[in-house]
Specification:
hpI Integrase, Chain A, 13 helices, single chain, 3 domains, 3-stranded antiparallel sheet, mainly alpha, 10% strand
Length: 363
């Protein structure tokens, strides 16, 4: 017969969990992370001592970065990029997950940085993970507080971004390259790409585009889409103006799904950058082209057509404090006229986009 365990411990799915009401503190509910009773009891004793010191002396309990990361993910489930944050935190966990938060700094992050470089990750990608760490530590030091009113972390260390020397340059497509690439895409992905290259939308804005975001504009004889700010990178409502090509794509898809504009076999397309995209760009001899280059292409074509910087910012969904988020019919007509300047038509001419690219060094 096994010995009795300490009060406040309960085993679930092979792991001991703490479930204990503490006077003056509240309920302590967390995993010990172990299936061994002795280890779980030592962890419980440590946590009870931390809480006692916090209650009596105002001492801040020690929390691991994993605890902070978990709180961050739970608190930000509606964040547009929370999936990417979760991916970065999963990669970080083996390196700093067990560390107390005050021990997370550039020195303890060095093994993670070295490992990601060895895996071939670009500096920008590594910096995205570091910025997530910095965000969590800043929240722990400034916003998150325990039952005693103490912040989770006394002070946040300086997490520096790495200098970027390996950034990949944008690759706007020529009309010939666009035709070659789109010809290789499956129909559902081709429609998404055609919409993206004619609206300047981001990948997730296209994938998540919903019919209830469509707003009819009677004066234009067509609709626009307004993407709610929680789904937009810069956290501002995103106006999507539909030029003639994008409008034709939208009309082609009406009635195919009651909720999402772009679907495949009745399901939402979670990402355009998938195996079909990789296969298509390889077949047409453009292995360097990314999904985001469609947005760059739209922007470059607008510029080549003589569209003003202010108008380009609106059409591309860039943050601009000088631009209102409310538009009159004439203003929307002006945006539509500008967006239509990048439509390739059988008759008439559009400004040619000359792409000047450096020859790759063979050395």
């Amino acid at each position: 017969m096994g010995r009795k365990h300490s009060p406040g411990l309960r085993k679930r799915r092979g792991i001991w969990h703490i479930e204990k009401q503490i006077k003056g503190y509240g309920r302590l509910y967390e995993s010990t992370g172990t299936g061994q009773l002795q280890e779980a009891e030592r962890y419980l004793a440590k946590r009870l001592e931390e809480i006692r010191e916090s209650l009596i002396y105002g001492k801040r309990p020690e929390r691991t970065f994993r605890e902070a990361a978990t709180k961050y993910l739970l608190d930000n489930q509606d964040k547009a990029s929370i999936g990417k944050d979760a991916c970065h935190l999963k990669q970080l966990d083996p390196f700093i997950g067990d560390f107390p938060m005050h021990q997370v700094h550039m020195g303890t992050l060095a093994p993670f940085i070295a490992a990601r470089r060895q895996q071939g990750a670009k500096t920008k990608t590594i910096n995205l993970a570091l910025s997530t760490v910095r965000r969590i530590l800043n929240l722990a030091a400034r916003l998150w507080r325990d039952e005693q009113g103490l912040t989770w972390l006394e002070t946040a260390p300086l997490i520096q971004m790495l200098p970027i020397h390996d950034a990949r340059e944008p690759y706007p497509l020529s009309w010939d390259e666009q035709a070659r690439l789109f010809q290789e895409l499956p129909p559902h992905l081709e429609r998404m790409a055609l919409f993206k290259v004619n609206t300047g939308t981001r990948e997730q804005e296209v994938c998540r585009l919903r019919w209830d975001w469509e707003v009819p504009v009677q004066e234009l004889g067509r609709s626009v889409f307004v993407i709610p700010k929680q789904w937009v990178k810069n956290r501002e409502d995103r106006l999507v103006v539909l030029n003639d090509v994008a409008w034709s794509v939208i009309n082609e898809l009406r009635g195919t799904d009651p909720q999402f504009v772009f679907t495949y076999r009745g399901h939402i397309v979670k990402a355009m950058n998938n195996s079909a995209w990789v296969t298509a760009r390889t077949r047409c001899g453009l292995p360097q082209v990314r999904v985001h280059d469609l947005k760059h292409t739209f922007g470059r074509r607008l510029r080549a057509a003589g569209v003003s910087l202010e108008t380009r910012k609106v059409l591309l969904g860039h943050r601009n404090d000088d631009i209102t988020t409310h538009y009159s019919a004439p203003e929307l007509q002006e945006l539509l006229d500008a967006a239509n300047k990048v439509c390739r038509k059988k008759s008439g001419k559009i400004p040619a986009l000359t792409l000047i690219r450096t020859r790759q060094s063979s050395g």
